Every structure is written in structure tokens, then in C-alpha cells.
Amino acid sequence: VIALCAREGLAVVPQGGNTGLVGGSVPTGARREIVLALGRMNRIRSLDLLNDTATVEAGCVLAAVQAAATDAGRLFPLSLAAEGSCQIGGNLSTNAGGVNVRYGTAREQVLGMEVVLPDGRVWNGLRGLRKDNTGYDLKQLFLGAEGTLGVITAAVLRLYPKPTASATAWIALASPAQAVELLATLRSRVGDRISAFELVSRTCLEAVLAHLPDARDPLGAPHPWTVLAEFGDCGTAEDLHGRIAEALDGHEAVLAQSGEQARSLWRLRESIPEAQFSNVKHDISVPVSKIAEFIDLTDRALKCAFTSTQIFCFGHVGDGNLHYNIGPAALVAQRDAVNRVVYDAVERLGGSISAEHGLGQLKREAIRNQKSPLELELMRVLKTALDPKGLMNPGKVL
Amino acid sequence: VIALCAREGLAVVPQGGNTGLVGGSVPTGARREIVLALGRMNRIRSLDLLNDTATVEAGCVLAAVQAAATDAGRLFPLSLAAEGSCQIGGNLSTNAGGVNVRYGTAREQVLGMEVVLPDGRVWNGLRGLRKDNTGYDLKQLFLGAEGTLGVITAAVLRLYPKPTASATAWIALASPAQAVELLATLRSRVGDRISAFELVSRTCLEAVLAHLPDARDPLGAPHPWTVLAEFGDCGTAEDLHGRIAEALDGHEAVLAQSGEQARSLWRLRESIPEAQFSNVKHDISVPVSKIAEFIDLTDRALKCAFTSTQIFCFGHVGDGNLHYNIGPAALVAQRDAVNRVVYDAVERLGGSISAEHGLGQLKREAIRNQKSPLELELMRVLKTALDPKGLMNPGKVL
Q1: Which of A37, A164, B22, B325 would bridge with B360, disulfide CB 3.0–4.6 Å?
Q2: CB neighbours (10 Å) of residue A381?
Q3: CA distance B55 to B45
Q4: What is the value of pTM for the model shown?
Q5: Residue A233 contacts by C-beta under 8 Å, 6 or more apart in sequence?
Q6: How far is it, in rounded angstroms, from Cα B295 to Cα B177?
Q7: What are the residues facing B198 on neighbouring strands?
């Protein structure tokens, strides 16, 4: 298909589960183009348990990859809200992130890759090697490129030992600074057993409690901030629970006593997006050490700039990644002005205006004010070198 | 300096600690070129403990980076034989590996980077972000490029919690297949507590025992294969030792009872390179699941091809990375023929002829028979796009 499009000068919009939030898999309508849906390339080609790898096709739904790993006694750690319908090809093309602070983003899960190049030739780089220093690591080019350099059709993914014990805690905090300090303390006490560490502002929790009639605040009294933390380990649940309880000593916290309790805590976190929908959304990151300063600075700047603001802040503390959303709904009409305040703070603190959602169409203009002209030039040099006719997903990223 | 060289059409050979094994930092003499030594750019610019990052200059010796992390209560995990003199810029440019199976190669330690481009302009990508999906991840280009696309001058590196307990075991095994199985078992039992898992053939151990007059075999009786395993955890040494002893139940093994005993076990492993020097060396990788087959296949093929062979095999099982060296010394004169046998087996099993040492000058020809023409073409496309005048480290990699 790609070879035919190249011959005809037809542009190609690769599309996975179409769950992206920045319009990366949506045609712009600016020129003649086809949508290339990868959903039928959905085979798990092989599992190599002694190598801890799975070779999967781009159209595999993320949850299916997770399930195949689980069935084989392994863990595929990438996890995000859309996992029931997003596809692994899209996850890799957008370098998807999610909650699993311990294992890194999609990029870090990939050992090998198969890619159809803009001229239709197939590069077979499906190697299952953890070390391979034989020249430029070509697969890195296509990870996070949002389909603008070629179409990922398959990949060799890392699998991990499946934790045998887990613990889930809901922890009261006075401020984001306390959350960052607690994460540092926990990392020194329980190391890599922390698999998620999710910040939730009081506004977010109240929105969820209003949205879900049967939900209740896990802690008796209201707290300005809370963290949902997840821990995993090989060993017994008793050992892990004991360690976590000890590590959290001195904090007001609830440690889930059953799988059902853990799921109800996670349901609170996972319902945040649908509970506060009509506002100006952001997916930003800053160094972890700057999280508190970012929230403080931006909250104040927004309060100065607009007469009424309501800030819903939640996110992945371990990755410095905040979903920082600003209401009320009336502010949506002033989206550009709101963005300007937030992006200024991001820039001041050395952050990113798209931590995990990509640029797509939505942030293609904004990024020109954030990145240096040299960095933009280097990106264009790569685009021109690999896709000289500009046929791959035009109008996205660059 | 680079801008001046670009103006004069003078080639540049970046050089760090000059400890590479493939001639990547050595001028070829084929044309007028300068050696650019980075050793004086050796400041640790900053440590950000709440972000778990260090910003360091290229000329920092690896051991100095490790020490700075340790002094701050953190771990910088990259560790390899030359750590006392190799420099971090060289480690990143060659995507160095080493023994630390748990944390990955140099590439995986980098969050941000500063690079002088072939025309002398400086790209400042020194971001300390764990998530940043705003277009192509430019730093990936320079990692492992062996200085052929630009000169890395500084980087933001990840730091990790420092394990508070460690355990070191020397384990008897009948075969490489048993080593691979044991690693899989241990991963399911103790997860990421495994920080090194080093295979040692009897020939290697005997060479070390002959080379070090005061060394002795840690196990009473001779075994065809042994593994040196290192474990780390946050917690007490007693807890960790108890778990490891339990996990190794049924295996003939020595668990070090003191730091001194652990060091003497590591000394056996670290003395292997100097104990078997005059032979034909290889640094190969295969999928972990193919290690046993590789050793079996290659041993047999070498015995067929040459009247007398002595095989010294050691390496990093968790990475599928073997140093597979073939004596006696007389075979060095037949290096090309020996390489051919080994590289054929590597290719058959989907492996790499340079797992962690790079291509440099030494493997620049050999790789042309291993990689597809398309992959070589893509590498050349990148080289031409970023260094159109071919001034950066000519005669290396491509």
C-alpha cells in the first residue's frame, strides 16, 4: 500500500486505535491522503520467555499484549487509560507513557522493530537483543515520530517478571512538595517496588465524588492533596504490606486490605478525566524537583490573569508529569490565553508542553515557541532525509 | 574548535578516555584530522537529588560520576572494566554496556544532552525530563554514534536509589543452558534484585587461577561452568541473604559472607581479560534464549574448522552478551577465518557481532556482511543529513 501511495504521490495517515488526544492519527483534509488502519495486523507473532520478549504486530490492542504477557507468567508494564482500545503501534509511535513510573515509557520497552519506509520498502529490525552496538539505532527514529517518518508494523517488546505481591495506598498530604519528598523517601526505603505514584488534588477528588454516586473519600477528613501509590514485588503480600506500612509510618494513609479495596482506590484515580471534562487541559512535564514550584507559580499566574479559575491537577509524580486542567468551562473560549500562562511556566522551569500525548496537530504551532530554532531545524533535516516527498502523516509534528 | 575545523574542512576525531576496543577514537591517518580530547571538560555541573539526575560534562571519568552519585546517596549504575579511566562522553558515544544487567546500557541512563554539531553550532538539549514527547528525540541520534554525527559535550544522567544491601554468589553449573534457566528462575523469585549475572567457563577460571598466584577456586571440585551473581536491595543484608540462599536452594553455590569475600569473587571475574590475552576476541550478543545454542554451535564449528582450539567464554547472561575468545595464540594469524565461523553463528541466531564495543575501525568492514543493504543505506542517509561534509570521525562506523 505504501509503495503504491509513494508512486501516486498520495499521503498516508497511519492510524491505530485512534485514541490519541492531539489529532495525530486524524487526516487534516489539506490534501489527498489515505488513512492506513493497522487494526488487522494484530497477531502476537511469538513469545520468547527465556529472552523475556514478545514480538507483536502494530495492530495489537495494548490490553491484548498485556494479557498475552500475563498468560505466560510475565508482565508487559505499559499501562494507560485507553489500554482497552489503543494499539501498540500507536503507543510506540507516540512513545506513550502512563502510570508505570518504574518501567519507563514505550520507547524503553522496545528491542526491535519492523517499519515500512515512505517509499514502501520494509526495514526488518526485529532483533531481540538487549545489547547491539553496530551503528545508529534506527528504531529510535520511529519511536515517538507519530508516523511522520514511516509506519511501524511490528516490534519486539521487553517482558518483565510478574510481581507476585502488590500493595495499594491512598495517602494524605498537605502539599505537592510533600508528595515529592515522600516519593524520595519511599525510593530510598523500598526502592523499585514503587510502580505508580499518582498525585490527586482535592478539586479532582471532589469532582470524582460528585461524578460517582457510590464513591466515597477513602480518608475521613478532607485533605488538600492525596497520592495513590502502587507497589509490587516478588515475594509474599504480607512481607510487602509490612514494609509499606513501615515506610508510610507517620503519614495518614489507607492501605488497601483486599483486591477489591485496591480497585476502588484506582477507580477514583481513573475516573478523574471523565469527572472534570469541560476545561482547558494540559499534559506537561517538569523535572520532579520542580513540581511544587510549577504548581505554585502557575496557580498564582492564572489567578492573576483570570477573574475565576478552578484548577484540577493530577498526574504521575515520578515522571514529573502533570495533567493540569483549568476551569470553569467558560475559560475554554480563552484557551490560547490560558495555554500561554501555563506554557510560560513550563518553559521557565525547563519543562515540556507535551509530556506523553505528542504534538500531532494540536501542539504543532505551540511547539515552535518552545523549542530552539536549531532543534526545529534538526527535526526538519531528519524529516527531509527520511521522507523527502513529505508523504507520511503530513501536517503533524512539524 | 569544531566551527573552525568546519570552515577549514578539517576532520575531527573526538576522544574521551581512549579505552575503546575497536579504534573508534583513534585517527585513521587517511586524511588531515585533529584529535579533540574532551578530558578537560570534566565538571559535574549539577546534581538534582529530588529529580534523581546529574548533569555532567563529557570528560568526566566514569568512576568520578559514580563517586559523585554515591556521595549524594544515589547510584549511577553504569559499570565496566575501564571505569577508572574511560570518560562518560565516550560511554554515551559508544552506548557502553557492562555488567549491570538490571539498569540497561548507557543509552537508557540519559535524559538530556548537549552536542556540538558538525558545523560548530551547539544544540542544548540538557533537559532533565522523564517524559517529553515533543517531536523527534534528537539525543538518540548521538548515543552510540561513536562521534560520527557530532560531539557530545554534556548530558543529564539518571540516578537511582542506592541499594542498602548486597549479596554475591558463585554458583556451579553443568552447562550454559542451566545458567539461562537459573536466571529465569531467579528473576521470578527475586525479580529486579539481580544486578549482575556473569557466566564463567572452566577455561576462564583456570586461566585466572594460573594468572593470580594467590587466587583459589571458590568451590571445592571443578565445574564446567560457573556464574558470578550479584544482588542488591533496599533493606537489611540479613533479609537479602536469606532470600538469595532460599532462591539458590538445590544449587552448589558459595554466598559471600563478607565484603572481602565478595571482592575476591569479583576479582576472579574481573581478571579474566588479562588472564587470557593472546587469542581471537569477540563481543557478541544473541537473544538470551539462544546463548546455549550459540555456544554449542560455535564450539563445534570451530573444532571442525581448526585442528586445535581453546575457547574462553564469559559474559553477561542477562544481556545475551558473551565475550567469546578463541585460542591458542597461533590462531590469531587466522583471525579472519575464526571471525567468519563466529559471525556465521551470530547471524544464524539473530545476534550482533558487536554487543557493547561498537564498530569503530575494527568491525567497519565486517558489519557490511551482517546488516541488510537497506539498514546500511539508512545509516548513510542519517550521516549525510547531519554531517554532509563528512568531517566527524571519518573512517569509523560507516
Answers
A1: B22
A2: 16
A3: 5
A4: 0.97
A5: A163, A164, A165, A166, A193, A239, A240, B191
A6: 10
A7: B228, B316
Bridge partner residues of B155 (DSSP): B56, B113
Residue A302 to residues A212, A294, A296, A335, A347, Cα–Cα distance (Å)? 29, 12, 10, 12, 16
Backbone angles phi, psi at B97, to 5 degrees: -110, -100
Q: Give the Å distances, CA to CA, from A301 to A176, A304, A323, A339.
A: 17, 5, 17, 12
- Tell me the chain A residues in contact with residue B80 when contact means C-beta distances shorter than 8 Å: none
Identify the H or E element spanning B190.
helix B176-190
CA distance A171 to A181: 13
- What's the average model confidence in pLDDT over B309-337? 96
B45 touches chain A (CB under 8 A): no
Report the candidate in B384, A117, A224, B274 with the shortest Cα–Cα distance to residue B392: B384
Residues A183/A248, Cβ–Cβ less than 8 Å: no
A272 and A311 Cβ atoms separated by less than 8 Å: no
- How far separated are the first and last CA of chain B, in Å rounded? 24
* Chain B residues within an 8 Å CB radius of A52: 187, 288
Weakest mean pLDDT among B98-107, B252-261, B282-291: B98-107
Instruction: Identify the CA nearest to B190 among candidates B101, B61, B82.
Output: B101
Answer whether residue A230 shows pLDDT above 80. Answer: yes
Each residue's pLDDT tens digit, A324-360 = 999 999 999 999 999 999 999 999 999 999 999 999 9
Helix axes of A373-386 and B373-386: crossing angle, nearest 10 degrees: 150
- Report pLDDT digits (tens) over B161-191: 999 999 999 999 999 999 999 999 999 999 8
